[in-house]
Amino acid sequence: MSRVLRSLLPARYAGSSSPERPDASQYTAISVGDEAGPDPLLEHARRHGRGVYWCFWVLGAGILLSWNVLICTIPLLASFFDERSATHANLASYLSTTFCFSNLLFLGLAQRDVGKTSPSPRIRWSLYLLHLTSLLMLFPVLPILLPRLSPSSPLLLPLLLLMTTSLACSTAYLQSAVFALAALWGSDETLAVMSGQGGIAVLVSFAQVILAVLGAMRRSAPEPGTEASVQSTLAGVGLWAISAVGAAGCIYAHTVLKAHVDYPNVLAPVIARGAESARAGGMGTPGGDVKQGVTGRVFKKNKELEMAVAWVFVVTLSVFPPITTAIVSTHSPPPRFLQPSVFIPLHFLLFNVGDFVGRTYLPAIPSLLITNPRRVLALSLARTLFVPLFLACNVAVSAATTGSKPLLNSDTAYFLILIAFGLTNGYISSLSMILASSPALNPKISDDEKDVAGTLAAFCLVAGLAGGSVCSFGVNWLVRGSVFG
Question: According to the model, what pLDDT value does residue 5 have?
Fold first, then answer.
């Protein structure tokens, strides 16, 4: 990615093999009191060091940490409900819808302060909230409270929705602040955030697969009639422990980033803009109206990219995980390591590996760095074809239909579709986010607008998540003949 961006610099900074002396006639004299600006290459090298990249990678991982742990533990959480209840069948849709719409609401509230205040305080307190909620899920919610509540208890679902809302709040404010800070720093840092989001999903799902395999090895025979066999409480506790430790790691990464020599310079435009807005308000000028004007202008400039990143996640959330967690192995009976207790975690891992590769490596290939917003939008819309492909796989609607032969009667075909689904999810979402906030790649956006553009794109991403979670009820109706199972 850095090589691609460097190629966009003027020729005199692109590097040369011969040490030619510059022509003095190309320069004008500097009057007394003027200050020469920093060399862009030196500025780029200092700001875009590997340490900065990894700090943003960790912060990006923190944004989707709770979401990935939540969806990976949905099968376990569903096992606490009556197997015949609608809540059991649709818990994935309930929790994903609650998370996405709460995230969208809080992100809209956070958007009001973007470009006017430093993102550092929001990063800090949102990470504290994420850490606290993860600790509560780790203990006592998962090992103590949920097992002691009866499957028909009226407190069971509200408790999970409350914890989900708390996670959504911390994620929204963290996402808004991190993307604003990354956009101010540069495109490499935006890519680092996107890569971190995919990377943490791989780590969480890999840990889930390991725990599931260990659990399968301890069982002498599969227990298909027991819903609790789908996931173990130990695996869930381990995943929320990862979430708590990860939040602490994000706090450390932000501390390191704040100590960087260029951190005050990066935030200087935001601080100056906030001071100007305060002065305008003091003189009776509606500074908020000016900010709204910038937001509306940037939104119109990037409408294709914002629609592209939103539709990516509309398609993804409409089937993943509400429908994909109902897809089981085509083997009858399935071997031990293709039982649902392993098959479902494995499907999370395959999707997340594809998503990580798509986010991190595909946009860094020059031939794949598409800078035409309409082409990016066309790729995003084309992902809709994945929905009927998943519906053609071995979706276990009920115990009576589990043995029926699906249209795509192959685990290998399903896994290949899943990997392609993840690759396109990560690739198109990263393209959209990078182009939306990069003046070098997207001439429509100015340097003063890139932080606003970055958070607007993040808002549209979350709007796509919310839209996809609603669409999952419609897809569920197509599969089960009922919106609520």
Answer: 44
